[in-house]
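Morning run. Coffee first, then this:
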Amino acid sequence: MKPILHIIALALPLWGQGNLLHAQSLKDIFFKMPQELCPALSEYNRLELIDNQKNNKPMQTRNVFKTFSKMEALTDDYAHLVVSKNSEKTIKLLNRSEEPPIIMVISTVFADSIPDASVSFYTTEWQPLDAARFVSAPTSKDFRHISVNPETNELTITTHYPLSLRFNNCDQPQKPHPLTNTYRWSADEARFIHQD
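And here it is:
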């Protein structure tokens, strides 16, 4: 009987640590984000944004480039950060059935107001994961706008073609229609599924 009690006593702290990993909020994860993923924000800047929210202050900070970064939304599983006038980051914590959640980061830069975005995935310890495991995004390398709905976890990728099309010997450039793909997150399959 005593050996069983010893095993249970040893296992309880490990079990608790596993549950803590599952229960981490995005605020904790955001604070631990490596600076190379967002060079403009130091650890102090990230802490200031979180503290400002706790103290009902504007969620902004003077970043390492001496300009202001502003957190427009920060919840336990979603964050939208305006890093500068030309860049934004959206971070979403995605749950998986019986597995630790993963972090999705959408990084957007703007060139003459045209968004160009990329999406990447990480463990809750900020270890990079292969994006192809979670979403089969369009292969085009043209400008993209990527967004996620924080309530439904629906991912939308809109591709904007930078080239103007000319046809029928017309001198007037014709704008092509942007191509939009929508994906729904499946916790059971631990990936985004394309919506037809």
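The longest strand covers residues 99-111. Good start to the day.
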